Amino acid sequence: MTPVVRDTSGLFQFVDRKKNIIRRSGENIAAAEVEACLTAHDKVKQVAVLAAPDEVREEEIMACVILKSPADAAEPTVREALARELFAWCFERMAYFKAPGWMLFVDSLPTGTSAKVQKIHIFPPGVDPRGQPGVIDLRALKKHKPATAH
Fold first, then answer.
1. Between 20 and 30 A from 84 (CA), which of 9, 58, 60, 102?
2. What gap in Å lies between CA 130 and CA 92, rounded to an integer?
3. Distance in angstroms (rounded) separating the CA atoms of residues 109 and 74
């Protein structure tokens, strides 16, 4: 998905803000596309996808997920299994490189007066989101692209 697309009538439409585009290994990935995929899962209530720094790939996808039933991720082993399930969900529905490399289950996301998620307030400026407690590293799952991936 690109930030600007041409619709059926030939007009261009602005799809996402440039700052909501994650650049991973030369690929442009719209955060909105990953959010839509994860939100379609029956256990997910809300998602915010953002870029996390990556030394090798420039940026990596981090998904901050609110579950419909927070008790589903109460224990670390259950959280990791659920993160792997959501990763596989994305893997089956999008190009393999668009699946999140990092996942964090949260109780809430900061919103503004318009009720839109304020991604800039999820992690304080200058804080590396990868080092936060509870972040699950899924990057190893991306190393082996399955034959069924897009």
1. 58
2. 25
3. 18
